[in-house]
Write a structure and sequence with these properties.
This protein is an alpha+beta fold. It is built from 16 helices and 21 strands. The strands form 5 sheets. Strands 6, 10, 11, 14, 15, 18, 19, 20 and 21 form a 9-stranded mixed β-sheet that branches.
């Protein structure tokens, strides 16, 4: 078997054969008249009328010897077979084809359409032209790229050789299209908010930091889809806004976490969290049904039925039931003792982080779909408190297969309360908590001018990844890789 370098050297020599004939093996133009999908769908009419057309694509297979050569082209829309026969195309063109063409090359062919004796839709080639000469061989069809890191590093080959991967990303595009169309239909305005911020808001996560040379200013890549900016737009008079965009979090990797992902956030004025639960349950069911054609999913070892009504479960009561500890009244020492008993690793010894660690342990045992409700104020710095219990908030999250899929709440619009909560977050940061939320005085100033009551909601790539039962990294086209 020839090495990659030997194959590459042989193909470079073939480039010299093009040059000797005065042919550019990388022309800018193409004569292609129809896609391969159009050729398949319009085949009967093309064959009947004996229509001569140019089609093009990458050569995925070459079969035959001597006077007859079969090829298969792929242009991303479909596959189509071509037949080169010496008595049709001529000795010179056929011999040159066999001399310089390899699997992986992009070519265009011209000819008439006919059906073979085996019933295969085919073009009888009368002319051909090189569009892009490949210098490296494609992976073997049946073995492909086996190493996971190599698959991610050469994702273009992974997609090309694996139709399931291509279909995955087509479904992902559809998932976001349906999300967008649903919100537009519900009178939401799509907006764009900054990805570079002087303070990160809208989530609790460690940000990426960079430097703005022109302003001589340290800035951060956003950790939410413009939450505090979208709320400013509610104050500006837009009743409903949303954004779908990239989010960056300088955190560890896991099957459910990556440092860069796509998220959606919307903010609806004059909607509270109870209305929001009904609204978003309807939205997610429509997005799932339209994308996948079903509301029943096998994921992470569980069968999930989204079609039924999603019942609520209370955060504090669920932990109390599972672990026999009340996170509202327990001391930090008691919470650490419980986590040690459970052999749960935790970062940070403040009550906010300990509460979150206890909940995450419980969450892994919940199949769902359920709505998590009554989330403590201490872990919800942007959510309205419940009037009947100021230690809890009007926050909701969809739980599926032991993971949080969404986040939503009645938005805090009391500037005094918001300032006080930011002060608590500021103290956490000063104590070394790298995931605490950065205070934003300008956001508080906006609230002092007035923002309507509103419901905010978010989900991201994780929801799609769970529905297709894949690690989050697998659903990214080009995940970040260490340089070789």
């Amino acid at each position: 078997m020839s090495s990659i370098d030997e194959i590459r050297d042989a193909r470079i020599k073939k480039l010299e054969l093009f040059k000797k004939k005065g042919i550019n093996p990388y022309p800018a133009d193409s004569k292609r008249e129809i896609s391969l999908k159009d050729a398949v769908e319009g085949f009967d009419n093309l064959e009947k009328k004996k229509t001569m057309k140019w089609i093009a694509g990458r050569i995925m297979s070459i079969r035959g010897q001597g006077a007859i050569v079969f090829i298969t082209l792929n242009d991303g829309t479909g596959n189509f077979q071509g037949l080169l026969k010496k008595d049709i195309i001529g000795d010179a063109k056929l011999n040159f084809f066999k001399e310089v063409v390899d699997i992986g090359d992009f070519i265009e062919i011209q000819g008439n359409f006919f059906t073979t004796k085996r019933g295969e839709k085919t073009m009888e080639v009368k002319d051909w032209r090189m569009l892009s000469k490949s210098l490296r061989p494609l992976p073997e069809k049946w073995h492909g790229l086996q190493d996971v890191e190599e698959r991610f590093r050469k994702r273009y080959l992974d997609i090309l050789m694996n139709p399931e991967i291509k279909e995955l990303f087509e479904k992902k595009a559809k998932f976001w299209d349906i999300t967008r169309n649903f919100l537009r239909r519900e009178n939401f305005l799509e907006v764009e908010t900054p990805t570079l911020e002087t303070t990160t808001g809208g989530a609790e996560a460690r940000p990426f930091q960079t430097h703005h040379n022109d302003f001589d200013l340290d800035v951060y890549l956003r950790i939410s889809v413009g939450e505090l900016w979208q709320k400013r737009l509610l104050a500006a008079g837009f009743p409903r806004v949303f954004e779908i965009g990239r989010v960056y979090r300088n955190e560890g990797s896991s099957p459910e976490h990556t440092q860069e992902f796509t998220g959606m956030e919307f903010y609806a004025g004059y909607m509270d969290y109870k209305q929001g639960m009904d609204f978003t349950e309807k939205m997610i069911k429509e997005v799932a049904k339209e994308t996948f054609g079903t509301l029943i999913f096998q994921t992470h070892g569980y069968k999930i039925d989204l079609s039924k009504k999603w019942e609520p479960i209370a955060y504090v009561e669920t932990i109390k039931k599972m672990l026999k500890i009340d996170v509202l009244s327990a001391t930090e020492k008691e919470m650490m003792k419980k986590l040690d008993e459970l052999k749960v690793k935790y970062e940070g010894k403040n009550k906010e982080r300990l509460t979150d660690s206890l909940w995450k342990h419980c969450r892994k045992q919940i199949i769902g779909p359920v709505w998590l409700t009554d989330v403590p104020k201490i872990v919800s710095p942007l959510s309205k408190t419940k009037p009947e219990n100021p230690l809890l908030t009007e926050r909701v999250q969809l739980i599926l297969a032991g993971a949080e899929m969404t986040n939503g709440f009645s938005e805090l619009n009391d500037p005094i309360d918001q300032h006080e909560r930011f002060e608590i977050q500021k103290k956490l940061i000063e104590a070394g908590d790298e995931e605490a939320m950065m205070p934003d005085d300008e956001f508080v100033e906006m609230l002092e001018y007035g923002m309507p009551p509103a419901f905010g909601f978010a989900y991201g790539d994780r929801l799609f990844a769970f529905l297709v039962d894949k690690p989050l990294r697998e659903t990214q086209m080009f995940p970040l890789m260490r340089p070789k």
